[in-house]
Design goal:
This protein has 319 residues and is mostly beta strands. The chain folds into three domains: 120 residues, RNA Polymerase Alpha Subunit, Chain A, domain 2 (Beta Complex), CATH 2.170.120; 87 residues, Beta Complex (RNA Polymerase Alpha Subunit, Chain A, domain 2); 87 residues, Beta Complex (RNA Polymerase Alpha Subunit, Chain A, domain 2), CATH 2.170.120. It is built from four helices and 24 strands. The strands form six sheets. Strands 1, 2, 3, 4, 5, 6, 7, 10, 11 and 13 form a ten-stranded mixed sheet that branches. A hairpin with a 6-residue loop joins β4 and β5. The radius of gyration is 46 Å and the shape is rod-shaped. The model has no long low-confidence stretch (mean pLDDT 88).
């Protein structure tokens, strides 16, 4: 190649380079490089059906991107995808890289956090007993027996640590004001997020029965001392017996009920009062709730000794 041809070729190459530099300069001046920080939702993919993520994972990551002014100005968070790829991972703790997909021509400068701590646990199932508790009280004179739950157990499914912490599940049955058997279909709530229960409801039957009654005598007495020259001739109760409503095991041990004692202090004639009947322990009702008590007095045949008690301790027991 002659010197003239080489000189012409060199000028041509130099012209192209100058034109390229000029284009780059003009382009940069007209549309310079800009950066922007965006918050992008973080999603997961590839997780096995037999595995579960335990613990909190960030809902989003912050990314710093670069591009020309025109590219940056039109960007939205929907243009990016931040992903944790959990494919093939087994149980345990690990750091997983955050992968960000971006539009063509956009450079990802920084991702924060770039790695996310992840704890994976296997999905397990366990049979758990369902218990029923009662709320409220039935109509007076009725009582409830132990509730019957069907099925008695349900299947709990979820991450290993959450499932192992569940020992039983409970439902509550409202029995306020009932006087007959109660039958309810009640939902069984999962106690923790990420845990499912099957079946999701159980049938609870609560037997309600009327309490038995028993007629028992009323026992009472007198307190105090009558006027000088008087003594207690006897005590009568009307009615002499009352009806006690209580569970059968309570009635089986019940021999009598107590009523308030009549005060005869300073009395010189018969004393009649209306006195309340004490409700026995674990009993529901006594009818009537009060009785009429009469302390009969009579004159003494001989004067009582000074400071003596003229029969104040007498009662109707055995009368």
């Amino acid at each position: 190649m002659s010197g003239i041809d080489w000189r012409n070729m060199s000028l041509r190459i130099l012209s192209v380079l100058l034109a390229l530099l000029l284009w780059l300069y003009v382009t940069n001046e007209q549309n310079p490089v800009h950066s922007q920080i965006l918050s992008v939702n973080l999603s997961q993919r590839g997780l096995s059906q037999n595995m579960s993520v335990v613990g909190n994972i960030p809902r989003s990551v912050s990314i710093r991107v670069q591009g020309t002014r025109g590219q940056i100005s039109s960007l939205t968070t929907d243009d990016f995808e931040a992903v944790l790829d959990l494919s093939g991972l087994e149980e345990g703790d690990r750091l997983v890289q955050v992968k960000v997909n971006s539009p063509a021509g956009i450079q990802i400068v920084q991702v924060n956090p770039g790695k996310v701590p992840v704890t994976l646990e296997g999905i397990v199932e366990q049979q758990v007993q369902v218990t029923a508790s009662l709320k409220g009280a039935p109509v007076r004179g009725f009582y409830v027996l132990n509730p019957v739950v069907a099925p008695q157990t349900v299947t709990v499914r979820g991450p290993r640590s959450k499932v192992s912490a569940i020992t039983q599940l409970g439902v509550t049955v409202e029995v306020e004001g009932v006087n007959s058997d109660v039958e309810k279909i009640l939902p069984v709530a999962a106690p923790q997020s990420g845990v499912s229960v099957y079946p999701q409801s159980v049938k609870v039957t609560v037997p309600v029965s009327q309490l038995p009654t028993k007629s028992v005598p009323v026992r009472t007495g007198a307190v105090g001392s009558p006027s000088a020259g008087y003594e207690v001739d006897g005590i009568t109760v009307s009615p002499a017996e009352v009806q006690v409503t209580a569970p059968a095991e309570v009635l089986a041990q019940l021999r009598w009920v107590e009523a308030e004692k009549v005060n005869i202090s300073g009395a010189d004639r018969d004393v009649t009062v209306r006195a309340a009947v004490a409700l026995p322990t674990n009993a529901v009702e006594v009818k009537p709730a009060a009785v009429e008590i009469t302390a009969r007095l009579k004159k003494t045949e001989t004067p009582p000794p000074a400071g003596g008690d003229s029969g104040a301790s007498q009662s109707n027991e055995g009368q």
